[in-house]
Write a structure and sequence with these properties.
elongated; about 100 residues; two-stranded antiparallel sheet; mainly alpha; about 70% helix
């Protein structure tokens, strides 16, 4: 149960999740109030755009984290961490000696 609460808390902390819930609610209420599909899309369009842009920002953050770890490891012991898979390596990371 604690794990489920942790997942829900992570979702609620996510800008993408909050925007998706808000867009869904606004679309539902807009249709119930008699707005046309075009009018509802004009209202929720910016929210949907924000979801996509936030997703791209998250990808950039992940890349920056990997680059930061690589820089730290190179300075410390000459090891580089990369993502990728080969026939004899795990899909998570592989270590290459400098």
């Amino acid at each position: 149960m604690d794990r489920l609460l942790g997942i829900i808390e992570d979702w609620l902390d996510s800008k993408k999740f909050r925007s998706a819930i808000l867009a869904t609610g606004v679309a539902f209420i807009g249709v119930k109030l008699g707005f046309s599909t075009e009018q509802v899309l004009l209202i929720i369009g910016p929210l949907l755009t924000q979801i996509g842009v936030q997703g791209l920002a998250d990808l950039g953050k992940g890349k920056a984290i990997i680059e930061g770890v690589n820089t730290m490891l190179k300075r410390k012991n000459g090891v580089t961490v990369t993502t990728g898979v080969s026939s004899h390596e795990t899909p998570v990371t592989r270590r290459q000696a400098k």
